[in-house]
Amino acid sequence: MQKQYPINDIFYSLQGEGYHTGLPSAFIRFSGCNLKCQFCDTDHNLKQMLTAQEIINQVRQYDCEWLVLTGGEPSLWIDEELLAELHKYFKIAIETNGTRQLSEQIDWITVSPKQHLFPQAKVVVRHCNELKMIWQEGIEPNEIMQTYYKDIQCDHLLLQPCDTGNKEKNAQLIKETINYCLQHKHWRMSVQLHKILNIK
Fold this sequence. Notes:
By secondary structure, the protein is an alpha/beta fold. It contains 5 helices and 9 strands; from the N terminus they run βββαβαβββαβαβα. The protein has helices at 52-59, 80-86, 141-148, 167-183, 193-197; strands spanning 4-14, 24-30, 48-51, 66-70, 91-96, 108-111, 127-135, 153-161, 187-189.
């Protein structure tokens, strides 16, 4: 029996977050994660089990340069075989919590670390293209970096306001994120463009 992967969704859209915001990309969203973040926007109960070839057949219809592996936590499921097949058609990006080692076949690594929220979520990835921290009430990103993530080499530091589902609370978090970035120039703000545009 061929190996199957738990897939929440496969779709084509604009990258909504991080350094590549606005870039047309194909997305594979995996179901399942080793953490349980209250602000996660993935329904992990929604999944279909697909083989590597079934995944390839779906993503090949999208005419773009980048493929984004997201979740959930995609590093729980991806393997060298699947990545090699995907790499025939795309550059591969991953959005991960950084708790698992990653393949050298991945071209762009976005780590959204959670060790400051979950002590067991130790980050083992030592280099990433971007480190994206979720801005929540009461956090101090520079202190968190020094306490938990000072050994991680990253090309870009991003702050993204948490989507709480409350319009007034979100507005306050956005304001706080803006102010922090203005006062700490090495941080760059990331917004969830796809939610603003009401697209996937």
